[in-house]
Amino acid sequence: MKKIRLNGEEKKVHASTLVELLKELKLPLATVLVEQNGKALHRHELEKAVLAENDQIEILQIAAGG
Length: 66
Hints:
By secondary structure, this protein is α+β, with helices and mostly antiparallel strands. It has two helices and five strands. It has helices at residues 18-24, 43-46; strands spanning 2-6, 9-13, 32-36, 39-41, 56-61.
């Protein structure tokens, strides 16, 4: 397990990549925006992004509304 900061809160996760983290959190890749250590990532960058101990991750989920 690794310790990360997720949306401002400390969390221990099994994931070793951002895509695995999204799966672990049950968040669909198509509806999220992700920032890793202050850098916003494009969707194609998520596939290659590796999680490290103490990474700061911000995840915003996009929701349609009316």
